[in-house]
Amino acid sequence: MHSKSSLVKSTRNFLWLCSRAIGLVWRTNPSLTVGILLTSILQAILPTAELVASKLVIDRIVTNLSGHHSSSHFWSPSLRYLILIAVLIITLGQVLVPLNDTLRSILADRVTGQVNRKLLLATSKWPGLSHFEDPQIADDWERVRRYAPQSGLEILTVSTGVFVNLCTMIGLAATLAHLHPLALLLVLATALPQMLAQWRYGTSTTRHLYTQTSESRKLGYWKRTQLTPEAAKDVRSYWLWPYFQFRYASSFEHTLGQLDKIRRGLSLRLSLASAVSAAGIAGVYMYLIWNLAQNLSPVGDLVLYGGAAMLMQSRLLELSAILGQIPKSVIFLPSLFKLLDVPADLQQAQTHRCVPHTIERGIEFQDVWFTYPGNNSPVLKGISFTWEPDQVLALVGPNGAGKTTIVKLLLRFYDPQEGRILLDGVDLKDYDLDDLRSRIAAIFQDFVRYEFTIKENVAIADISRMEDQDRLLLALQKADAYKLTAKLPKWIYTRLGRELGDTDLSGGEWQKIALARAFVRDAQLVILDEPTAALDAQAERELFDRFRKLFEGHTAIIISHRLSTVRMADHIVVLVNGTVVEQGDHSQLLALGGYYAEMFKMQAKWYR
Ligand SMILES: Nc1ncnc2c1ncn2[C@@H]1O[C@H](COP(=O)(O)OP(=O)(O)OP(=O)(O)O)[C@@H](O)[C@H]1O
């Protein structure tokens, strides 16, 4: 009972997937889809028509040869007429193959483009970061990347393939049954083992590929480690090539070695089964030759029925190969539709409340607890602190204390599991998410180095200001990055990066470009995560001197391990292991003689 209901459920699920996939193909380009269907229907009818026409031509030739000896009688009007029809049918059959293939290729590319656009649109609606860090979603991406763009088209290919082969086979079966019902039975029975082997081949290899998705992600990773310019430095300086090659080779062996084993076993069965089907064809031919010898049938029958038996078998095999392909076409569709339908990872406010233009009361963390999705232990354990408007707040603490996590919560990349984060007394969750983020200029320590021009790299913080050159130049000046543009070949129009760019910058120069982004936006909140980590001592000092002026009228948060950068902050929060251990301004914390004072003295000692 249970297995029956699960069969009904999985069949319903399968049909739903197929209809959704075909719907996707249809909506991508209805006229191309119709073109493929029409050419497929014609391809279904033509093979039987070709056989019948050939038989009629041969029989007419034999009749004309036996009845008359003059050339004019041989070329009787009926023979010419039959030859013309046969040539037309054969030509049409030949023309349809490339036509159908071309239509399929065009549609395949369009479906791929459509699927990718849909996926990008769907991911743009994931408000947080959790989905990007979920290993199951990463597996779904891998399946989609490898197979799903073709899946919609494969479903179309499979369904038209099944239709074409069934139509062709009805004609062929009727022809064979006309010769003798046992001839039909013989062909069907001897094709059966090969059909089963073919089907098993398709389903087993697909199942294997599906279960190996995580492993093939690793395979891709080991390949990338040897190809990306970032890793190339390490690979060469540490001579990692043999090690990465080894990891790649063992991962390759793991995924594809097993597949080879499956393939070898199945191909042996397939060869044995082919021998059985060949025996079936031989049986039909023996019967035809015996008939011919007994003068029971014309020569044309050899072409018609022998051809029908061979074609029937090849179509049966094609059908089972197509049926074996179904799991491959379908098995990746759930991943595609899961990615398209995955619910948002954050609740969005229904009220569309905007962040006030002037922050009056500041920001307050109230007993905030946070654990990263998939982790067991919390990263933030009951964090509480207040951040007054127009203040510069600094977060300090050892590595892994949770400083960047606090910033991620402020941007609502994740929501805390317990506690609240208030902006002017209102929970961040109650603000419109897009509006909230548009009021924050955040520069992370792992900022992205886009292979764009300098102008674009700065304007990325507010695309609407792309043509506001004065603003962009001012931002570059504030970040002390303007000077470096002078030495570049195309000034601010110089494209940066190693892959597409004209030239590249040093780490510190890149950091200045990233810092300039903070000054492009009209943001109420500025977040700088390690803004001076890559700067030289003089640049850090200059930034430090100008910091107050640069962020005048801004509520800013700065994360830094360099306490020389941090000391000018109005309020300093010291985090250790996810909890606030001290807070106050620089002199208060020094007077306290705790973690901050110790770190500051240690750093000062090093400098001295
Ligand atoms: N995306 C993530 N998924 C799971 N755990 C994470 C993730 N990001 C950070 N963590 C964990 O959270 C802890 C705090 O990380 P966070 O980046 O906030 O530290 P931090 O104080 O900014 O450290 P650092 O000074 O090294 O930049 C770390 O122990 C880290 O392992």
Automatic annotation (TrEMBL):
Location within or outside the cell: Cell membrane
Ranges where the ABC transporter domain occurs: 363-602
A Pfam family this chain is assigned to: ABC_tran
GO molecular function: ABC-type oligopeptide transporter activity; ATP binding; ATP hydrolysis activity
Superkingdom: Bacteria
Annotated InterPro entries: AAA+_ATPase, ABC1_TM_sf, ABC_transporter-like_ATP-bd, ABC_transporter-like_CS, P-loop_NTPase, Type_1_exporter
Keyword annotations from UniProtKB, A to Z: ATP-binding, Cell membrane, Membrane, Nucleotide-binding, Transmembrane, Transmembrane helix, Transport
Chief place of localization: membrane
Record field: transmembrane: 79-97, 153-173, 179-197, 270-290
GO cellular component, one term: plasma membrane
Membrane topology type: Multi-pass membrane protein
Stated name of the protein: ABC transporter related protein
Species per Swiss-Prot/TrEMBL record: Thermobaculum terrenum (strain ATCC BAA-798 / CCMEE 7001 / YNP1)
